[in-house]
Amino acid sequence: MDKIRLSADGTPRLVGSRDQETGQTYFPYRPLAADGSLRPCEEVLLSGKGALYSWTRFAKRFYGQIDLPEGVRVQCEIDDGPHEIGGIYRLEVIADGDDAKWRFRHD
């Protein structure tokens, strides 16, 4: 399952899942609920914006935890900064050779 998809308006969105019984949302996508019940989850497109919870730098790259409105905290690469805890970050797709990668950029 791909981690990213374009929404109807062409903006990139992360692909997650939601437990229909409890409303719990997950990223990355998982086919079954995390509580061991074996309930199937539905696929959902998550918000393309979130707030920076925390960040660090390692090996010349920046990584952050982005809190999405759906209640999911995504750990991912972020842009080079400057960074602001609580600041709004937007999902972006970047060409990387023959592939593409995603990260969040300060809005």
Describe what this molecule looks like in 3D.
The protein is mainly β and 107 residues long. It has one domain (4-106). It contains no helices and nine strands. The strands form two sheets. It has a five-stranded antiparallel sheet with strand order 7-6-5-8-9, with no helix packed on it. The two termini are 27 Å apart. The model has no long low-confidence stretch (mean pLDDT 94).
Number of helices: 0
Biggest beta sheet attributes: 5 strands, antiparallel
- Which outline best applies? globular
Q: State the end-to-end distance.
A: 27 Å
Q: How much strand? A: over 45%
- Coarse structural class: mainly beta
- The average pLDDT value, as a whole number, equals 94
- Spans of at least 5 consecutive residues whose pLDDT stays below 50 are none
Instruction: Strand order, main sheet: write it out.
Output: 7-6-5-8-9
The counted number of beta strands is 9
- Which sequence of SSEs, written as H and E, runs from N to C? EEEEEEEEE
What is the radius of gyration computed over CA atoms, rounded to a whole number of angstroms? Answer: 15 Å
How many domains comprise the coordinates?
1
Query: What proportion of the residues is helical, as a percent range?
Result: under 10%
Helices and strands in order:
Blueprint: E1 4-6, E2 12-19, E3 25-26, E4 41-45, E5 49-58, E6 61-67, E7 73-78, E8 88-96, E9 99-106
Antiparallel strand pairs: 1-2, 2-3, 2-4, 5-6, 5-8, 6-7, 8-9
Can I get a quick summary?
With 107 residues, this protein is an all-beta fold. It has one domain (4-106).
